[in-house]
Amino acid sequence: MLDFVSEWFRFAASDLSSAEHLLGKHPQPLELICYLCEQSAEKYLKGYLIYKGVADPPKTHNLDVLCEMCSEYDGRFQEIKRACNVLTLYGVQPRYPHEMEISEHDMKKAFDYARQIQDFELLRAVYIESIKD
User: What is the reported pTM?
Assistant: First the structure.
């Protein structure tokens, strides 16, 4: 099971790394960066749920739902509730033209929130445990 958790976390880190790489592009693909930030957070939360024994996390882009599910295992997930709420906006709409207007400020905030989730102490602890031999 820990190998599977590690894979989810590896994919989450890759999404955020890709978003970071795109920050250096001109013009910046704001929608894609925001989408990758949401995807990263989603995979970290689903990885945690799998770690806790949820065999098949819900197929949703709603990070509020996933964060609430994680909070049932540890109330400290409420610390990243705001980040999840904002990033949820970028799970679907930015993938389609004219669905959402995103500013550079929005994109920077999305990236900061995704980094906050990646750095969240409970997720880091699970990641470290999942890669131990």
Answer: 0.93
Number of CB atoms found within 10 A of residue 22's CB: 16
In three-state secondary structure terms, 62 is coil
What is the DSSP code (8-state) at residue 99? S
For residue 83 the two structure tokens come to 């980040």
- At residue 17, the pLDDT reads 98
How far apart are alpha carbons 71 and 76 in whole angstroms? 7
Tokens of 45: 């939360």
pLDDT in tens, 3-18: 999 999 999 999 999 9
What b-and-e string marks burial along 55-74, b requiring 16 or more CB atoms within 10 Å of the CB?
eebeeebebeebbebbeeee
Please, are residues 74 and 49 in contact by the beta-carbon 8 Å criterion?
no
pLDDT in tens, 97-120: 776 789 999 999 999 999 999 999
In eight-state DSSP terms, residue 16 is: H
Residue appearing with tokens 């949703």:
60
Residue at 54: amino acid letter: V
Which amino acid is residue 6, in one-letter code? Answer: S
